[in-house]
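Hey team,

Sharing the Hpt domain-containing protein run so nobody has to redo it. Sequence (109 residues) first:
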Amino acid sequence: MIDWGRVAALREEVGREAFEEVVLMFLEETDETIRRLSAAPVAPLEEMLHFLKGSALNLGFRSVSRLCQEGEQLAACGRGAEVELGVLVTSYRLARMEFLKGLERMEAG
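Structure output:
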């Protein structure tokens, strides 16, 4: 679900302090996008999924990124109604919990 190698590499690239800022910004932005997707998407669905896909890739949320990619492709073909937003939202929430628990382990270790 989470690519911990990517997380560790990003932390190494930006440094510990900047990494914390990146994580906070990521969670704020993705939480807001997920809230918008859970309601009625205001922006075009394809754009929202593209944004979420890129954000998810940056912090190693593999499953979320994959679902966004699939949804983005459907939306691009005019089949946005087929995107299973509930599955995506659930996947994000599970990945978010796993990510936060994993960060706690990284900090402790």
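The radius of gyration is 14 Å.

Ping me if you want the raw files.
A.
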